[in-house]
């Protein structure tokens, strides 16, 4: 058999939009509601491989009603951001991590994999077209949504022989309308987000729709988000659609511990999660802090809160970056998480948020984490 074509950024075709949007003022940016003037599409067939990538005016896709993405959820996505640095450069934050994860998601649902560096280059070209729409300022960025769908027509359940990558971009501000503000969570133990041997570590659209009902149920009771609690042990796994971290201080030894759940296949392999683990392992004094990926339960959190050992908690994801937590509803009561007096987070949460922002906005360098477009 002949080898099929790899994804090749040098084959890019550009059809420019007639219209050039004016940037909106930052205070009008609502997460993921407005998009830039162009999108990227690349089609794939089992027979030929990846076709010439295209940048074209943002607009509707035409899909047959029998298309497999609409019936059997052959869909996966990524989320990453481009930042306008203080010097005016535009950088992507750790795009290699997103591309690697995108290929893992694709492989799991029988969609084609691709050359990761080629898609990064193509995303760079897409941003270049609309670079006047990349916002500037603390908390502002261009959210990039690479997506892959199966596009075979017909209701037979099988391996798609046609697929497409598309990438759209959205100028965004803080994910929550309230900005960097501590949220209250309701622990959910009646529904399960992911399970051993499942696909909870893949960024499949099918993992997200089932997250909304528990979130609405939490909202009805006055909580902003739900906290996913797994199995008879009541292990804490994620918050809403983000990874989650807790910090404890042992009342006997005074030693502090930052904890998040281990990557056992039920946890999304978050880029922000990974960045926080790397930064805290580099920056925190090991005599004072331990950084652990381990199982921990809502019962441990409740007990340690009672002893005054729960010191901080926060969600971590690309969209919100760091989202401080101030309370967790569990068994009819609220577990309170302390905040710095008059502030919206604990001390470590605040440090982590600024360490990451400094790298994202180009004030600090960290290896190859920032990639200039
Ligand atoms: C995140 O970035 O935290 C996400 O999970 C993306 C979300 C908008 C679905």
TrEMBL record:
Pfam families, per database record: Aminotran_4
Q: Which GO terms describe its biological process?
A: branched-chain amino acid catabolic process; L-leucine biosynthetic process; L-valine biosynthetic process
Q: What is the name of this protein?
A: Branched-chain-amino-acid aminotransferase
N6-(pyridoxal phosphate)lysine is found on 203
User: What InterPro entries would the database entry show?
Assistant: Aminotrans_IV, Aminotrans_IV_CS, Aminotransferase-like, B_amino_transII, BCAT-like_C, BCAT-like_N, BCAT_family
Pathway, per record: Amino-acid biosynthesis; L-valine biosynthesis; L-valine from pyruvate: step 4/4; Amino-acid biosynthesis; L-isoleucine biosynthesis; L-isoleucine from 2-oxobutanoate: step 4/4; Amino-acid biosynthesis; L-leucine biosynthesis; L-leucine from 3-methyl-2-oxobutanoate: step 4/4; Amino-acid biosynthesis; L-methionine biosynthesis via salvage pathway; L-methionine from S-methyl-5-thio-alpha-D-ribose 1-phosphate: step 6/6
- What family is reported? Belongs to the class-IV pyridoxal-phosphate-dependent aminotransferase family.
Q: What species does this protein belong to?
A: Zygosaccharomyces bailii (strain CLIB 213 / ATCC 58445 / CBS 680 / BCRC 21525 / NBRC 1098 / NCYC 1416 / NRRL Y-2227)
Molecular function GO terms recorded:
branched-chain-amino-acid transaminase activity
- Per the record, the domain of life is Eukaryota
The cellular component terms of Gene Ontology attached to this UniProt record, alphabetical and capped at eight, are: mitochondrion
- Kind of enzyme, top EC level? transferase
Matching PANTHER family: BRANCHED-CHAIN-AMINO-ACID AMINOTRANSFERASE, SUBGROUP IIII AMINOTRANSFERASE
């Amino acid at each position: 058999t002949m080898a099929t074509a790899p994804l090749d950024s040098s084959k890019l075709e550009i059809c420019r939009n007639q219209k050039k949007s004016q940037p909106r003022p930052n205070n009008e940016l609502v997460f993921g509601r407005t998009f830039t003037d162009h999108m990227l599409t690349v089609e794939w067939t089992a027979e030929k491989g990846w076709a010439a990538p295209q940048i074209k005016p943002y607009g509707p896709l035409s899909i047959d009603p029998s298309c497999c993405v609409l019936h059997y959820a052959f869909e996966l996505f990524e989320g990453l951001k481009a930042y306008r640095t203080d010097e005016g450069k535009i950088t992507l934050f750790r795009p290699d991590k997103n591309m690697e994860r995108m290929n893992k998601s694709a492989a799991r649902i029988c969609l084609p994999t691709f050359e990761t560096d080629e898609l990064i280059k193509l995303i760079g070209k897409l941003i270049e077209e609309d670079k006047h729409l990349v916002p500037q300022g603390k908390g502002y960025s261009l959210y990039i949504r690479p997506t892959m769908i199966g596009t075979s027509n017909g209701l037979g359940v099988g391996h798609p022989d046609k697929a497409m990558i598309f990438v759209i971009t959205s100028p965004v501000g803080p994910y929550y309308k309230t900005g960097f503000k501590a949220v209250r969570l309701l622990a959910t133990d009646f529904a399960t987000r992911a399970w051993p041997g499942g696909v909870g570590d893949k960024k499949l659209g099918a993992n997200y729709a089932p997250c909304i009902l528990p979130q609405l149920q939490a909202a009805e009771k006055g909580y902003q988000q739900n906290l996913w609690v797994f199995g008879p042990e009541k292990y804490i796994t994620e918050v809403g659609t983000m990874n989650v971290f807790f910090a404890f201080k042992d009342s006997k030894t005074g030693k502090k511990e930052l904890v998040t759940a281990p990557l056992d296949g039920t946890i999304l392999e978050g880029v922000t999660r990974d960045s926080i683990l790397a930064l805290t392992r580099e920056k925190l004094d090991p005599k004072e802090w331990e950084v652990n990926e381990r199982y921990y339960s809502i019962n441990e959190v409740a007990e340690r809160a009672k002893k005054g050992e729960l010191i901080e908690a926060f969600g971590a994801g690309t969209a919100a970056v760091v989202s401080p937590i101030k309370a967790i509803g569990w068994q009819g009561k609220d577990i309170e998480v302390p905040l710095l007096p008059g502030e919206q987070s604990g001390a470590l949460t605040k440090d982590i948020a600024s360490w990451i922002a400094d790298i994202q906005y180009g004030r600090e360098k960290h290896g190859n984490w920032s990639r200039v477009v």
